[in-house]
Amino acid sequence: MPLVAAFSGWKGIPWLCWSSSDLKPTLVLHADHIECRVLRTRRKPYDAVSRVDYRQTAGTTNIVLEFSDSVSSFVGNTANRDLARDAIQRLARMGCPLSPRSRALIDG
Questions:
Q1: pLDDT digits (tens, 9 = 90+) for 16-54
Q2: C-alpha span between 54 and 65 (Å, rounded)
Q3: Edge-to-edge, what's the strand order for the sheet holding 26-29?
């Protein structure tokens, strides 16, 4: 997924982050795992995703990934609603639980 920026935050507090990067933000949905990068690359199996959320404000279109084995979250800014919808649909097909906002985006 092409990203314009990525952020590390805390579960349940998506608008407050402790790190960010627009140099090399990464979100890759592999067949058996997710690869995401803010400052360092993390690889997680899909079953480690505890929730996929969607947040949009002026200038940002964010996919928020929360993981069951971490208190931090990954936030990827696609800056594009269609790209975010595609990523969330793919995450849903891999069995990742969706928030009501994510479900509303893909149900449309």
A1: 788 889 999 999 999 999 999 999 999 999 999 999 999
A2: 9
A3: 26-29, 33-37, 41-45
CB 30 within 8 A of CB 41: no
Tokens 């995450």 correspond to 91
DSSP string, 13-39: EEEEEEEEESSS-EEEE-SSEEEEESS
What's the pLDDT score for residue 50? 97
Domains and CATH numbers, the chain: 5-107 (2.30.29.30)
Q: Is the pLDDT confidence value at 14 over 70?
A: no
Question: What is the DSSP code string of 42-102?
Answer: EEEEGGGEEEEEEEEETTEEEEEEEETT-SEEEEEE-S-HHHHHHHHHHHHHTT--B-HHH
Taking the mean position of all CA atoms in its chain, how far away is CA 74?
Answer: 6
**SS3 category, 108:** coil
Q: What is the DSSP letter of 40?
A: S
